[in-house]
Amino acid sequence: MLGFLALCLPIFAVIGIGFLAVRRGAIAPMVPDAVGVFAFNIALPAMLIRLMAAQPLAESFQPRFFGGYLAACLIVFFGSMAGAMLFGGRRRAQAAAFGSGAAMGNVGYLGPPLLLPLLGDRSAGPVAMSIMSEVAIVIALGSVLMAPIGERGVLGRVALALARNPVLLAISIGAALGALQVPIPLPLERFLGFLGNAAGPTALFALGGTLGRLTLDKRLVLAAGLGATAKLAVYPLLVWVILDKVAGLEWFWVQAGVMLAAMPTATNAFMLAQRFGVGAEELSAVVLLTTIIAAISFPLTGWLLIGPLPLP
Q1: CATH 1.20.1530.20 fits 2-298, yes or no
Q2: Which of 94, 145, 275, 309 has a CA-to-CA distance to 79 between 20 and 30 Å?
Q3: pLDDT digits 0-9 by tens, 109-122
């Protein structure tokens, strides 16, 4: 367990630096937004293209993993949404925001820096498939269900935004290069590697800065606690059952899937709720609480799945 803490805590410490920088006024509150744009739109796509192009498609894409992970994602989304409506008295739009918080993890920002050291470059495939599930599918579902009834053009706008999403485009390019086994020219490969290496630190700093603008109000603790339980306990357990007991996948895919499901709630879920004006306060509390808890729960999950790591 100490080995996992030694590996993971420095990563969460970068989040803490971004958090404190905003809270202490060392940087302007909008700086993390600019850093996050660089990380998500430029550095992360460069890293994904390079890693996925270096692997045959059969190694980076596993249909049963994608189907099982997506199934778990949708079960958590609609299950959390139904629970919020039946037991929490929330209406459709608010319940959809709660479902998004339970099903949308920070797989883009936290997936690469946490999984690559543990599982190697091969984990780029599971990270890409989790992004496709939790970003593309959940954003589309959340947008449609959070929008006022009768609002026109929501689905078209969402589809256009996803079609232009740099990360999804990078996944498609990397998968195509891997399938065709087209090698990236060495100068371009070095360029992508140099740029992609910036993805982890900048993404983590941007995440911390965004969290620094959020608050955990005492009256929202119960809702945040329920959301955190769904995200950090129910979701990983469900992924383990589906990938291991139902699909019978190789243990590597089970490890990757469970650890990706154990990521804290993405700030995208909060921004989606804020955009539609439903449940934004609750989602901000869920994002903050799950990130704090994940600093301990993720190393514990990794330790249970992989076993002890030697101390560096």
Answers
A1: yes
A2: 275
A3: 888 888 988 898 88
